[in-house]
Design a protein that fits this description.
Mean pLDDT: 87
Organism: Rhododendron griersonianum
Largest sheet: 6 strands, mixed
GO molecular function, one term: RNA binding
Family: Belongs to the PPR family. PCMP-H subfamily.
Pfam family, one: E_motif
GO biological process, one term: RNA modification
Helix content: 55-70%
Number of helices: 29
Length: 590
């Protein structure tokens, strides 16, 4: 039967075996007190007040003494109510025992309240146990608690942690009265599931509804903006954090550092970092190092690493991942080897597959292809797709087409429909003038029904993100965009630009080839940025692409940076490219 008690207070009901005692219960012990002393005091006073024992269970739970909580529950609470059961379940929330205690609760029989379900959903998320969570969701619907903000926010968290963001959004949309905890759960959940546009939409809706922010909703929105490399969104949320006072919060500050770093503004990221430096944890230091690492600025990464050690903080695996990433992007193989060895010998940390991937990438980028392959074959992990893709890209870049074909075959074992493997190796064969092999690759793609993944590029204008596909004609300024792009192609042709035809993997006519290359998504985004005034004169244009920027666009952007006399920044799936005065900071290697 459903008890009339709730988790906020304990009122006697007919389900209780005895009315409240007339004796005044002892005052609750201080939070810092040893719960065993408080327990002894309760036994000495001969109290039978169930609320005292419920509080003691909670104290044992907070003191990480769950076995004591269970013993007290069994021996001192002959008739537990929903508060008693919830306290016990909370004590075991990080283990599957919480679910077993819940089953016992139902057999008692006692039905859960919104707090019980919230704890259980958190347990299912941490274990994880989606199947049990689905059953709990069904039960919450039956007892009309599924839309309670307390229950629903925990359910949103469960579906987010189990990578079911659509389920999380459905649960959220059914909540009649949403509070700041509900909004924080959906914003963070969507950001963690790589759904940044929806996350920012919910955050915007939260502000329009007048619901207050929390440090979690603000940091989640910043994570979403970082995923899009949406600089203006980062700045807007930063301003909101200042107004609400969250800018001094370390969690929000770390998210700001990450956001500005992923937008390529390491100077702004460093400014936030320096303001919060005394309170920064190793996570914040790692975020700052990662921002420099994306730019290949290994000097700043190593310098920060030393400063972090001087503060007494202990580097972790992510600290070394930032260092190795910086050497990878800079192409410094020897330094990457030394730091991987230091990680193991001097710091007692075992490198993960990601660390070895950075080493393989640094070696292959430096032209040490055989050494990179040797590391991949002898490291204590089974090489995954990113390892072989790093080697494949470097083999193609260095003109070792035979080795590139071998790496492509290894990469295709993981996914026979991986279009990037075919594209890179076909470009390598085309660059070597081996057109028969190019035709063979095209045939393999056709036989396997492999289609080149559609590229998407986006650019931010006045806080709004504009997304473009290849040959996209959906934008309201399509005519202006295409006219501007035609003008740019003519201008860079005068400077010596020649289209990279090897980017075309399918046999089409000369005109079709030209149009296919001309209307790539990043070129359309760039043209739109120029006609719409996306950035003031003297400020860089910023574009993000979901795939690796192709060689033709890369070549074109170098020339366009000369024509428009401004910096163009492109963040593709691999790294940042800064085009200025006809060159790129990647040195044509990515």
């Amino acid at each position: 039967m459903l008890s009339s008690l709730n988790a906020d207070d304990e009122t006697w009901s007919p389900s209780s075996t005895a009315p409240p005692t007339a004796k005044t219960p002892p005052p609750p012990p201080p939070k810092t007190a040893d719960p065993r002393r408080a327990h002894a005091q309760a036994i000495k006073t001969l109290t039978t007040d169930r609320s005292v024992f419920n509080n003691l269970i909670t104290l044992y739970s907070k003191s990480n003494l769950p076995s004591h909580a269970l013993r007290l529950f069994r021996h001192h609470i002959p008739s537990p109510n929903v508060v008693s059961w919830t306290a016990l379940i909370s004590a075991f929330s990080l283990s599957s025992l919480s679910l077993l205690h819940f089953v016992s609760m139902l057999r008692h029989p006692t039905l859960p309240n919104h707090r019980t379900l919230s704890v259980l959903f958190k347990s299912c998320a941490s274990l994880p146990s989606l199947s049990f969570g689905l059953q709990l969701h069904a039960l919450s619907i039956k007892i009309s608690l599924s839309t309670h903000p307390f229950t629903a926010s925990a359910l949103v968290n469960l579906y987010s942690k189990t990578h079911l963001p659509d389920h999380a959004m459905k649960v959220f949309d059914e909540i009649p009265k949403r509070d700041e905890v509900c909004y924080a759960a959906i914003v963070v959940g969507l950001a963690q599931n790589s759904r940044p546009v929806e996350a920012l939409s919910y955050f915007s809706g939260m502000r329009k509804c007048g619901v207050g922010s929390t440090m979690y909703s603000v940091s989640g929105a910043l994570r979403a903006a970082a995923g899009l490399a949406a600089l203006e969104q980062c700045r807007i949320i930063h301003g909101h954090a200042v107004v609400t006072g969250f800018d001094s919060n370390v969690i929000v500050g770390t998210a700001l550092i990450d956001g500005y770093g992923k937008c390529g503004l390491v100077t702004e990221a460093r400014g936030v970092f320096d303001e919060l430096r005394p309170e920064m944890s190793v996570i914040g230091w790692n975020a700052m190092m990662a921002g420099f690492a994306q730019q290949g600025d290994w000097n700043s990464v190593v310098e920060l690493f030393g400063e972090m050690e001087n503060t007494g903080l202990k580097p972790d695996e992510y600290s070394f991942l930032a260092i190795l990433s910086s050497f990878h992007n800079a192409g410094f193989a020897g330094e990457a080897e030394q730091w991987l060895s230091r990680m193991r010998v001097d710091y007692g940390l075992e490198p993960s597959l990601e660390h070895y991937t950075c080493l393989v990438g640094a070696m292959s980028r430096a032209g040490r292809l055989e050494d990179g392959e040797r590391i991949a074959m002898t490291m204590p992990f089974e090489p995954d797709a990113p390892v072989w893709r790093a080697l494949l890209s470097s083999c193609a870049q260095h003109g070792n087409v035979e080795m590139a074909w071998t790496m492509a075959k290894r990469l295709l074992r993981f996914d026979p429909c991986d279009d990037s493997a075919y594209v890179i190796v076909a470009n390598a064969f085309a660059g070597a003038g081996r057109w028969d092999e190019v035709k063979e690759v095209r045939k393999l793609m056709k036989d396997g029904r492999v289609r080149k993944k559609g590229g998407r590029s986006w650019i931010e204008v006045q806080g709004q993100v504009h997304v473009f596909l290849a040959a996209d004609r959906r934008h309201e300024k399509t005519e202006e965009i295409y006219a501007k792009l035609t003008e740019l192609i003519q201008e860079i042709g005068k400077l010596g630009y020649v289209p990279r035809w090897e980017e075309m993997l399918h046999e089409v006519g000369e005109r079709e080839k030209q149009e296919a290359l001309m209307y790539h998504s990043e070129k359309l985004a760039l043209a739109f940025g120029l006609v719409s005034g996306a950035a003031p004169p003297g400020k860089p244009l910023r574009i993000v692409k979901n795939l690796r920027i192709c060689r033709d666009c890369h070549e074109a952007f170098k020339y366009i940076s000369r024509v428009v006399e401004r910096e163009i920044i492109v963040r593709d799936v691999n790294r940042y490219h800064r085009f200025l005065d006809g060159s790129c900071n990647c040195k044509d290697f990515w």
